[in-house]
Design brief:
Number of helices: 3
Protein name: Threonyl/alanyl tRNA synthetase SAD
Organism: Halococcus thailandensis JCM 13552
GO molecular function: alanine-tRNA ligase activity; aminoacyl-tRNA deacylase activity; ATP binding; metal ion binding; nucleic acid binding
Largest sheet: 6 strands, antiparallel, barrel
Keywords: Aminoacyl-tRNA synthetase, Ligase, Metal-binding, Zinc
CATH architecture of the largest domain: 2-Layer Sandwich
Shape: elongated
Helix content: 10-25%
GO biological process, one term: alanyl-tRNA aminoacylation
C-alpha cells in the first residue's frame, strides 16, 4: 500500500523520493511505495507534477486509487519497476486546491450553523469551488450573509490543524450534519481530523492550508437550485501571494 506522505499534516511539502513498485505500460501508470501526490477524491482533483529518474522523466497528469493502489498516470517516459524516482508537485495547483478545500470547510460550517443545511456534495477547482447544500432554500439575501460570515472567520486567521484522531472520539466531537461519517468504512481508525480553531472539526483526507488568513477574501459568485431542498453555492477566492 502506498504511503501518503502528506498525511496527516505535511501538506506543504513539495518534493519526495520513492521506489517504483509497479508499472503498467499499457495504461501509462506507475505505483510507488510512497507519494506526495494527492489522489482524486472528496471533491478535490488530483495533484499534477513530475517524476524524474535515471533514464528520463515524465509528467504526472492524473492520480487515482484503484483496488487499493494509488496509480500515477504519467505522460512521457516511464521508469522501470524497482527504480528510484524523484517527485515534484505542481505547487501552484496543489496550493490552490489547499486554499479552496479549506474555504469549503469554512462555508460548509457557516451554512450548517446558520441554516441547518448539510453539505451534500462539493467540487474544488484551482480557481473556484461549488458546494451543494440540503435541505436548503436560500433567498436572494442569504448568499451575501453567508459570504460575510465566512469572511469574518477568515479575518480571524484561525489555525487549521490536521492530525490523526481515534475514530470514536472524532465521531463524538463532529456535529450532526457536518460529515458523512457513515460512508467511511468502520475499519478506518484512526481518522484524519481537520480542525479550524474553536469553530469546526471534520474528518477529511484532503489537503489544507495551516491558517485561514491564507485564503484571502471569499466572494460568492452564484447561487442556484439543484432540485427539491437542494441549493448550490459557487465561490472564488481573491487572496494573498502564494506560499
Amino acid at each position: 500500500m502506498t504511503e501518503q506522505l502528506y498525511l496527516p499534516d505535511d501538506d506543504y511539502r513539495r518534493e519526495f523520493d520513492a521506489r517504483v513498485e509497479a508499472v503498467d505500460e499499457s495504461n501509462g501508470t506507475v505505483v510507488l511505495d510512497r507519494t506526495l501526490f494527492y489522489k482524486e477524491g472528496g471533491g478535490q482533483p488530483p495533484d499534477h507534477g513530475r517524476l524524474s529518474f535515471e533514464s528520463g522523466e515524465g509528467r504526472v497528469v492524473d492520480v487515482r486509487k484503484d483496488h487499493g493502489e494509488i496509480r500515477h498516470t504519467v505522460e512521457g517516459n516511464l521508469p522501470k519497476e524497482g527504480a528510484t524516482v524523484h517527485g515534484e508537485l505542481d505547487w501552484e495547483r496543489r496550493y490552490a486546491h489547499m486554499r479552496y478545500h479549506t474555504a469549503q470547510h469554512v462555508v460548509s460550517k457557516v451554512v450548517l450553523d446558520e441554516y441547518g443545511a448539510s453539505t451534500a456534495g462539493n467540487q474544488i477547482h484551482d480557481d473556484r469551488a461549488r458546494i451543494d447544500f440540503t435541505p436548503a432554500a436560500f433567498d436572494e439575501d442569504d448568499p451575501r450573509a453567508i459570504e460575510e460570515r465566512a469572511n469574518a472567520l477568515i479575518e480571524r486567521d484561525l489555525s487549521v490543524e490536521k492530525e490523526n484522531r481515534p475514530r470514536a472520539a472524532l465521531e463524538a466531537e463532529t456535529p450532526d450534519g457536518r460529515s458523512n461519517l457513515d460512508l467511511i468504512p468502520d475499519d478506518v481508525d484512526p481518522l484524519r481530523a481537520v480542525t479550524i480553531g474553536d469553530v469546526d472539526v471534520c474528518p477529511c483526507g484532503g489537503t489544507h492550508v495551516d491558517r485561514l488568513g491564507e485564503l484571502g477574501e471569499l466572494t460568492i459568485v452564484d447561487r442556484s437550485s439543484k432540485g427539491a431542498d437542494t441549493e448550490r453555492i459557487e465561490f472564488v477566492l481573491d487572496g494573498p501571494e502564494q506560499a
